[in-house]
Please model this.
Amino acid sequence: MSWLGLRHKGVEVLYPDEWNRVVDGLDILKQYLDEKVGVVDLKNLSSDVAPSEDNKYNLGEEDRAWRAVYAHYGYFLDNAYVQGRRVLKDGDPVSVYYFEGPAKEEIDAIYMNTSRPKSIDTLALQVGPTPTPLSDVDRVVKRIHVKVPRSSPSIVYLGSEDKQEYILEPGDIDVFEVDNPRKIYVRSLGNATIYIAFEE
Model:
């Protein structure tokens, strides 16, 4: 028998007073739940919302996503993705791979059109495994521009006569603040052609 005086029945008749006590019991139960648990209106929240455990639950799914999210600030403890690509953060390493292709070609064109010295002497130099100076004679220059063609089959190394450790890969362009090109030696693992511009 329940605390309202109701008992289990078999096939007996349910009298009005018994049914009324069932209804009263349901009303009492609802009032208790409303007071203890509270009814949350998800369309109009007036409190913070946080999961019961850290890094366990998702908001939406890959094929059931929210159409739009509006907020003043967003803080991501790990990574954020936009259209399937991870968003770069301050301090993330950046690979030069992402600058190759048409964008890299446009950068090369801008460099040649805007940064090319007004008075230059250009030449194509054949290099190989034996270190070779950029110039076979002493000459006074302001800067030396070195470009390794994108089609070059080999990496190029530059440095002093004794040691060449500065690397230029195919497609690279660099400027050296050296007053005499005979001081810079260049070599490559295989035969290659590089282009040099002396700014005088």
Notes: The chain is about 15% helix and 20% strand. Residues 41 and 47 are 11 Å apart (CA to CA).
